[in-house]
Structures are given as C-alpha cells and as structure tokens.
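Reproducibility note. Readers wishing to regenerate the assembly model reported in the main text can use the exact inputs given here. Chain order matters: entities are listed in the order in which they were concatenated for prediction.
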Amino acid sequence: MEELTDELRASFDKVLSTLNTQAREKTESLVRSLKASLDALTDSAKAREKIDQMSSEVTADNPYSRLMALKRMGIVEDYEKIRECSIAVVGIGGVGSVAAEMLTRCGIGKLILFDYDKVELANMNRLFFRPEQSGLSKVEAAKETLVEINPDVQFETYNYDITSMESFSHFCGRLKEGALDGGQLDLVLSCVDNYGARMAINSACNEIGQTWMESGVSENAVSGHIQLMVPGKLACFSCAPPLVVASEIDERTLKREGVCAASLPTTMGIVAGLLVQNVLKHLLNFGQVSECLGYNAMKDFFSLMVLQPNPSCSDSWCLKQQELFAQKVKAEEKNRAEIGSGEVEEDLPLHAENEWNIVVEDDPVESAGQKSELNEAKHKPAEGLKFEFEPAKSSVNNDELVAGSEKDIGELMSQLDQLK
Amino acid sequence: MDEGTKSVLQKIPLLRTNAGPRDAEGWNRRLKEELLAVIKYVSNNKEQDRDWFFIQPDEKGIKWSGKCWYYLDQVRYEFELEFEIPATYPTTAPELKLPELDGKTAKMYRGGKICQTVHFQPLWARNAPHFGIAHALAMGLGPWLAAEIPDMVQRGVISSFAK
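Running the prediction on these inputs yields the following structure tokens for the assembly.
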C-alpha cells in the first residue's frame, strides 16, 4: 500500500512538474509577444505620419512651422518649393551625413545617397552616426535615421564606389533620371574625401550639364571650402587645379606619421552648414549664392572668389558646355534687345543679377584662364585661397613617349606574363 | 620625391593616348601603351636585379592583379596586389590595394587601399595623361612599401608574410 502511494505521488509530482514547465513557457511566450506589440505601438506613436502639405500654422506638432516662418519674415518667397527638389549627396561621411540631415529636416523632396563605406567606431569623432550603427553601410544607416526624422522625404541609397567602371554609368543615370518627376536632379553635392571621386562627379556633371556643389575639409582638419559648379558658366573641377584654403602651414613640416588624415566635428559641421546654406539659397532663390568660399579655421578668415571656365579645359564635355552657355547668353541678349528694355520678365539664369564676374572681395575678377597662364599674377587666387598643385605640363618631349609596337594586346599580355 | 624614385620614373616611357576605359576605341590604344610601359619598367627592374612586383590585367585591361614583395634583412615579404582602372582614368590614378594588409597599418583606407603621400596626387595631375600604371606603381606603391614595411615588421604584424 505504502509503495503504491509513493509510486502515485511520484507520478503525480512528475505530471505537476510537466504542467508547470508548460505553463511557464506559455506565460513567457505570451509576455514576449505582448512586449513586442507594446514596443511596436510605442514606436508607431513616436514616428509621425506623413504630411501632405507644409503648413505655416504655429503649433508644437507642426515640424515645418519655423521653416514656413521664413516666408512671413520675407526671406523666402516660396518655401514649399523645397518639396519638389531632388538632391544627390555623394559621400556620406563627416560632411555628407550632416548635410543630408540638414536637408531632411528642411523637408527636401528627395535625397539620393551614394557611399561604399561602412560606419566604424573611428567615425565617432564626427557628427550624425552612432556607435551601435558600426558595421552597417553608411547609406543604410543614414537612411534609417533620416526616415525617422522626416518621413516626408523620399530616399534612394546606393552602396557602391562611383569611380568604378561597374557603377559609373548607373551613377550618371541616377543623376539624369533620379528626380521626383523622373528627370534630372536639381543639385548634386560632392562630400567625398578624394580627388578621384571629385573628378568622377565632375565628369558625370559635365556630360549631362548638371549643376553641383563641391565641398572639402583639409587633411589637417583646420580649413575647408565649398564651390558651386555650373557646367559651362563657371569653372569645372578640371578647368584648374583644385582651389583650397592656403593654410600657411608648410606641407613639408606637417606631421603625418601614423595617420592618413585628421578630422574635427566642428570644421566638418561648419562646412556642411556652409554647403547646405548655399544649397537653400540656390534652390529657394534668396540671398547671394557663393561661387567659391574658403574657410580658414585657424584665423576665422573667409575668402570668396569666382573662377571662370578655362577655354582650354582638358574635359571635352566642359568645352561643349561652355559653348552651349555662350550660345544661351547670346540668345538672351538678342531676346532682350528685340523685346526692348525694362518691362519684360526675363528667364535669366539664377543670380544673373550678380553677373558671373563680380566678386565680393576687393580683388579683381579671377579666371582660371589658360592653364599655362595660371602662374601669372593676374590669375592668382583670392586672398586666403590657393591652387592645390601646379597645372598640368603643356607639352612633353617626344623621345620620352612610349614607342609604337607591332604587337597586339594579346601578344603584349603574354609577353608581360613571361616576365613573371 | 627622393632621387631614387626620380631616376626610376625617368626611365619609364610616357604614354601618348589620352583615353580611359569609357572610350572603347581609345582604350585599346591606351592599353597597348600601358602594357609596353609596364613591360619596360619590369625589364628595367630585372636588369638592375631590383624586381619587386608582378601584375597582369584581365581581358579588358580594367582589373589588374599580381604580387609585390619587399626585402628587409634578407627576408622577403610578399603581398597580393590589385587595383582597378577608374572611370575617370587617366585624369585620376588607380587606387592601389594590398587587401591582405587591411587593418595592419594606419596608412591605409578600408579594403587595403594605400594612403598616398602628399606628393603623389600633384605629380600625377601635373603629368596627366602621360603617366600610366607603371608610374603609379613606381611613385605610389614603391615608396609606400619602403616606408611602411619596416614599420610593420618592427611592430611584428606581418611575420606571416615572410617567404
């Protein structure tokens, strides 16, 4: 009898323990799913709904009220226009990510982001990215944050190197057809950190006649610049060596041991701010758009100048754009003469009232001119600016050039292979 | 630039054709010149018993790969070398990559792209479009190896590359 009771008790305990485990598992799973639903609810409560029309109503929950106030204050005539604008940001680093955030907060219509890099902890001395985003592609991580900030903005992201043969045509295609209406973009922003990528943007923009803005921060982190490029009207990136801020720090004494480049969140934030300020002025037609602006952080000195296109630019598309621009100016002059003076609203290029050769500095008009003339005093950059390097040599000795060969490419390849 | 690099550069023929890979017809001519210049440079090196790299292009001449090596205290350190001809070539130089050394030195961008000295870009731009692949190796990779290998050996991070 006692044995039977023990046996019964044992099996009863077993059943009880199984039931307990099952109940616990069920409860835990229920708690988990409840928590997930709660998180989702909290998230959706935090994220705002899309807004169809920008309102100027001053309420705490209108994200555009302070921007629309620019109209009431008479700074901007038509702020809503920004929602029709499409911009590409190339390079989502210390400058590009901040510029993209500024444009997102301003309610830009569409942003296309290009970068092939990943977020890493070494980026944390700059703004925008967070440590937990390490390992994500910069474009993906940026989109993730920006969509939350402003769901009204459309995003397109490309995680590739625009200079590579595989991506370059696709890149050109997106500039040409990536706008909200399927047409060409309003503006391309270069926020890259190297000459090759800037040159790739320059080539693409010259080919399709795309207005763009270049930006850069020096390797020693204490200067930066922005430059407006309007193909045919202003110097392109190939017309002259790159314009940079003259730092008065001798390159040869610059200590570069163990590092490629230094960077500061301050300088990068300032340059991003200058860049996007210029973008807003250009898009929304207020103030004066800067053609080339240099910022020296050591002295807090700003330089302004205009660089005209080089009639012997090495980029053949730049020369074609120069010709097109000259024709356009001629046609406008003719048009103006025919219509008579004054009363007609002319379809002039943006900021024509500034004429393209008026500088804010005291210096006379600067021109890239012929490359061979660059060293002449009259083609010197404005105070505080300099060309990054000397222009290309105009000619080389014939006897230094490679001699012709009867062999074809296949034969030469196997000749090289034999040298292994 | 040091005298050694300068005299090496002077013996590499300059290229004639200003064409990149986006210009199919011009690129054929340019590729032929590139091959001739690289062959000349490798031959120069072999003659002087200073052979230090080997490269071969793919069919289109866009992707190049091979090896480069550096001797230090009678030990040969050898690395994979690769690079791609960019869409804007020859206005801009190719970015040379030593993928195996990624993360082993600060003088490198992600993926193993070597960080060029301040002299590289100005010199390339000044000589565009006459400088080619052979010149990029001679004035870009050569000086980089000479500066960075001794440092990496000293830090003990590349002993596995000793042959």
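We highlight two features of this model. Chain A touches chain B at residues 117-118, 163-165, 168, 195-196, 199-200, 203, 238, 241, 251, 254, 256, 258-260, 314-315, 388-393, 396, 400-403, 405, 407-409, 412-413, 415-417, 419-420 (CB under 8 Å). Confidence is low (pLDDT under 50) at residues 354-378 of chain A.
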